[in-house]
Specification:
Elements: E1 2-5, H1 20-28, E2 32-36, H2 47-52, E3 56-58, H3 61-67, E4 70-72, H4 79-82, E5 90-93, H5 101-110, E6 113-116, H6 130-147, E7 169-173, H7 177-188, E8 192-197, H8 200-209, E9 214-218, H9 221-228, E10 233-236, H10 251-254, E11 262-265, E12 286-289, E13 292-295, H11 305-334, H12 336-340, E14 342-345, E15 348-349, H13 352-358, H14 365-369
Parallel strand pairs: 1-2, 1-4, 2-3, 4-5, 5-6, 7-8, 7-10, 8-9, 10-11, 11-13
Antiparallel strand pairs: 6-14, 12-13, 14-15
Helix pairs in contact: 6-7, 6-11
Length: 370
């Protein structure tokens, strides 16, 4: 199969979807790999690194789209790329369709085969979402610690406090991968952390493994309202598989919060879990609503591209290799995890969460494969 590695064009996105070592493995398996020139520069990989790994360096994205049977990205295709995507072409990337009807319609009209990293599920886990969730969870606290400073518009509080001064209160909504890593980081800095989830078994596990300054609690609207009044930082880490994130914090609730408190919405890729959230960029990461700092960067791991690119390749390469080896139909038939990644296939919505988000007709991918 001809596999295309594209340069990311989303603003301030410095990741690349595959390292040179990943390309070397694809080439060794008999595949032809096209890498768009300078695709790896932001992550510290030059064209020469990819050339030594066996890739062909091509000048433009248009050439990659024109020649490749499968194109691989990190972020969703951008509007300037929509018309380059061919019917039947495999597009393998993070799509987060439920957050964008325009993207969903564009991919339906392209008749491409869209396999989304974020919905591939294996043994009850989301293995391709996990590495970026780990990065984003840790970064959420790192960014919150910065923007809670007075010079950034925050309350002017140190997350860990100092002897004789109480630490900050951090509220984490969601006890999955993002939430657990955020809570670990906040605890490590010495903050008082409330970690909320609706899964009692998950809460039991978190209570056993988290530090003593972390307090796992059952999430409910009443609990959220109560803890918002105490929180200096709130991290939204809620994920509904393939669907829009629920709005857990309304605008009315902001009035109950401390002025200068910080909201970090890691769920912004799926529409955000705060009513007042809207996507921001690394260049302009924050805005204020009713005296509350909002950080809603939709590609947080793009700020640490070297770490993120290596972690992403570690997770995605086995699936990319399987799709390249067998083609998307046979790979989906033989590997249920890949089947769960089918979101839009040749003009049909094959992910229930996406269909429900925009009231589109849902087509069971098993029917297409049979």
């Amino acid at each position: 199969m001809i596999v295309g590695i594209l340069k990311e064009i989303k603003p301030e996105e410095n990741r690349v979807c595959m390292t040179p070592s990943g390309v070397e493995i694809l080439v060794a398996a008999g595949h032809e790999v096209l890498v768009e020139s300078t695709a790896g520069d932001g992550s510290g990989f030059c064209d020469g690194d990819y050339r030594e790994a066996g890739a062909e360096i091509v000048a433009t994205a248009a050439e990659v789209f024109a020649r490749a049977e499968m194109v691989i990205h990190v972020k969703e295709p951008q509007p300037s790329e929509y018309q380059m995507i061919r019917p039947g072409q495999i597009v393998f990337t993070y799509f987060h369709f439920a957050a964008s009807e325009s993207l969903t319609r564009a991919m339906l009209e392209s008749y491409a085969v869209c396999i989304a990293y974020e919905t591939i599920e294996a043994d009850g886990h989301l293995p391709l979402l996990t590495p970026m969730s780990e990065v984003a969870g840790r970064m959420a606290v790192q960014e919150a610690a910065k923007y809670v400073e007075r010079s950034q518009g925050g309350r002017g509080i140190l997350l860990g406090g100092v002897p004789g001064v109480p630490p900050a209160a951090v509220l984490v909504l969601g006890g999955g991968t993002v939430g657990a890593h955020a809570a670990q980081m906040a605890c490590g800095l010495g903050a008082k952390v409330y970690l909320l989830d609706t899964n009692l078994d998950r809460l039991r596990h978190l209570a056993e493994v988290m530090p003593k300054n972390c307090f796992p609690m059952m999430s409910s609207p009443a609990t959220i309202r109560q803890l918002l009044t105490e929180a200096d930082v709130v991290i939204g880490a809620v994920l509904l598989h393939g669907a829009k994130a629920p709005k857990l914090v309304t605008r009315e609730m902001l009035a109950t919060m401390k002025p200068g408190a910080v909201l970090v919405d890691v769920a912004i890729d799926q529409g955000g879990c705060f009513e007042t959230s809207r996507p921001t960029t690394h260049k302009n990461p924050i805005y204020m609503v009713d005296g509350i700092v909002h950080y809603c960067v939709s590609n947080m791991p793009g700020a640490v591209p070297l770490t993120s690119t290596i972690a992403l390749t570690n997770a995605t390469l086995p699936y990319a290799l399987e799709i390249a080896n067998r083609g998307w139909r046979l790979a989906s038939l033989q590997r249920p995890a890949i089947r769960t990644g089918l979101n839009v296939v040749e003009g049909k919505v094959t992910c229930l969460g996406v269909a429900e988000a925009f009231d589109f007709e849902f087509v069971d991918p098993n029917k297409l494969l049979s």
